[in-house]
Amino acid sequence: MANMLFCLSVCDTDNCVILDEEHHGDVLAVIEAKDWKVARGQAGLCTQLDPFSYPAGWRWMKRKESGML
Q1: 39: helix, coil or strand?
Q2: What is the DSSP letter of 40?
Q3: What pLDDT is stored for residue 66 in this prediction?
Q4: 45-54: which pairs have CB atoms within 8 A and are 24 or more residues apart?
Q5: Which domain holds residue 41?
Q6: Could you read off the pLDDT of 8-37 as tens digits, one per residue?
Q7: Residue 43 lies in a domain
Q8: Are 62 and 52 in contact (CB under 8 A)?
Q9: Alpha-carbon distance 53 to 36, whole Å?
Q10: What global pTM score does this model have?
Q11: Are 43 and 27 in contact (CB under 8 A)?
Q12: CB-hemisphere CA count at 13 Å for 23?
C-alpha cells in the first residue's frame, strides 16, 4: 500500500490543530505515512505543535498564556 499525505493545519473556526487528509486553515506540517495511526505518532514529534496541547481524545488546542516568564 502506498503512503498517504496528512496535513496538520490550524482550523480557522476553532483555532485548534487538526490532523486530516485535507487542510482546514494555515498548514503547520505535511506528514507522509501509511495510515492515520502512524501519522498521529509522527505528528507528536513536530515542533510546530509546541504551542499546543493535546487533551486525550480531542484535538491540539492552543496553550493558555500564563503571563509568567
Answers
A1: helix
A2: H
A3: 55
A4: 46/8, 48/8, 49/8, 49/17, 52/16, 52/17
A5: 4-62
A6: 999 988 889 999 999 999 999 999 999 999
A7: yes
A8: yes
A9: 19
A10: 0.80
A11: no
A12: 10
Q: Give pLDDT tens digits for 29-50.
A: 999 999 999 999 999 899 999 9
User: Phi and psi for 56 in degrees, rounded to 5?
Assistant: -50, 130
Could you give the CA distance from residue 40 to residue 43 in angstroms, rounded to a whole number?
Answer: 5
- The answer as to whether 67 is a domain residue is no
What's the total number of domains in the chain? 1
Burial 25-45 (b: 16+ CB within 10 A, else e): beebbebebeeeeebeebbee
Match 498517504 to its residue by C-alpha cell: 4
Q: Which residue has the cell 509522527?
A: 42
